[in-house]
C-alpha cells in the first residue's frame, strides 16, 4: 500500500478498527443546486442513510415521503414501502444515464442510484482505498487556503460503482481529508471539488460531518459558486 494511503487510513482510525464493523448509518441534511436542477428538490433534504461496508449496498429513508425508502446496489435500485412492498425497480441502472448531461432530469430511481453511489463512496472513504483492485499513489502537492495538501491519485476497478474511475484525494498534515475531486460520469463527466470538514470521532473512527461540493475548473481550482451539493451529517452509528 502506498505510504500516503496508509497514513490517511490510520489518521481516520485504522483498518483494523474499520474491519470490526459491518454498517454505518447517519442522519443527513442536504441542499445545493443539484437537486432542483435534476427535478428532485426536497426529496432527500432530510433523510437517513445506511450503508453496508462489505458489499456496495445503501438505503435512504425516508425517500421523498415518510412511507418510502430506497434500496441501492450497483446492479439494481428499488423503491419500497417502509413495510417492504416493492414500488419500482431498475436493473442495470447505470446504463439508464447514457447521454446524460448535468442538466438532464432524473427519475426517482436514478436519484436513488446517484445517492447510493455517492454516500457509499463518501462513508467508506478512506478505508475503501484498501479494497482489492483499488490503486493509489501520491502525486504533486497542492497549495490552498494557506496550507500545503498532499494529494493521492486513486483509480477504481470496474467492480466498484463510484463517480469516476480516477479520483483525487487531498489531505492535511494530520492525514485527514480536506478535499475530494472526481468527475460525475453519469452527469456528462461534470467535474466536482468536494470539500470535507468538521471531523468528529464515532466509535473510534473519524468522519467529516460537513461536505460542500463546488464546480471544478480545468486548472483544478474550485469555483466559489454555485454550491452544487451540501451535506451535513449527525447521529453517526456503526454496528
Q: CATH first level: which class?
A: Mainly Beta
The overall average pLDDT, rounded, is: 97
Coarse shape: globular
Class inferred from helices and paired strands: mainly beta
Q: Report the span from N to C terminus.
A: 27 Å
CATH architecture name: Clam
Q: Return residue spans where pLDDT drops below 50 for at least 5 consecutive residues.
A: none
CATH-derived topology:
outer membrane lipoprotein receptor (LolB), chain A
Main pleated sheet: 10 strands, antiparallel
Share of residues in helices: 10-25%
Order of helices and strands: HHEHEEEEEHEEEEEEE
The overall number of domains is 1
Tally the helices: what do you get?
Answer: 4
Keywords:
4 helices, 10-stranded antiparallel sheet, globular, 239 residues
What's this model, at a glance?
The protein is mostly beta strands. 15% of the residues lie in helices and 44% in strands.
Folded structure, characterized:
With 239 residues, this protein is mainly β. It has one domain: outer membrane lipoprotein receptor (LolB), chain A (Clam), CATH 2.50.20. 15% of the residues lie in helices and 44% in strands. It is built from four helices and 13 strands. Strands 3-2-1-13-12-11-10-9-8-7 form a ten-stranded antiparallel β-sheet, with helices on one face. A three-stranded antiparallel β-sheet has the order 4-5-6, covered by helices on one side. It is globular, with a radius of gyration of 17 Å. The two termini are 27 Å apart. The mean pLDDT is 97.
Amino acid at each position: 500500500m502506498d505510504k500516503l494511503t496508509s497514513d490517511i487510513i490510520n489518521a481516520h482510525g485504522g483498518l483494523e478498527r474499520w474491519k470490526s464493523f459491518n454498517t454505518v448509518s447517519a442522519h443527513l441534511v442536504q441542499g445545493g443546486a443539484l437537486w432542483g436542477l435534476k427535478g428532485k428538490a426536497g426529496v432527500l433534504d432530510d433523510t437517513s442513510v445506511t450503508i453496508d461496508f462489505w458489499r456496495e449496498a445503501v438505503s435512504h429513508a425516508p425517500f421523498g415521503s415518510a412511507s418510502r425508502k430506497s434500496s441501492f446496489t450497483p446492479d439494481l435500485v428499488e423503491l419500497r414501502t417502509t413495510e417492504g412492498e416493492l414500488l419500482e425497480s431498475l436493473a442495470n441502472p447505470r446504463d439508464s444515464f447514457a447521454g446524460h448531461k448535468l442538466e438532464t432530469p432524473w427519475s426517482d430511481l436514478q436519484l436513488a442510484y446517484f445517492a447510493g453511489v455517492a454516500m457509499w463512496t463518501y462513508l467508506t472513504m478512506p478505508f475503501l482505498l484498501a479494497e482489492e483492485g483499488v490503486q493509489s499513489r501520491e502525486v504533486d502537492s497542492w497549495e490552498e487556503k494557506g496550507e500545503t495538501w498532499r494529494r493521492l491519485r486513486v483509480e477504481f476497478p470496474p467492480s466498484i460503482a463510484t463517480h469516476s474511475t480516477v479520483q483525487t484525494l487531498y489531505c492535511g498534515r494530520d492525514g485527514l481529508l480536506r478535499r475530494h475531486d472526481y468527475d460525475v460520469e453519469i452527469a456528462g463527466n461534470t467535474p466536482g471539488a468536494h470539500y470535507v470538514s468538521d471531523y468528529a470521532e464515532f466509535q473510534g473512527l473519524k468522519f467529516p460531518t460537513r461536505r460542500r461540493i463546488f464546480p471544478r475548473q480545468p486548472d483544478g481550482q474550485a469555483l466559489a459558486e454555485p454550491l452544487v451539493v451540501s451535506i451535513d451529517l449527525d447521529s453517526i452509528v456503526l454496528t
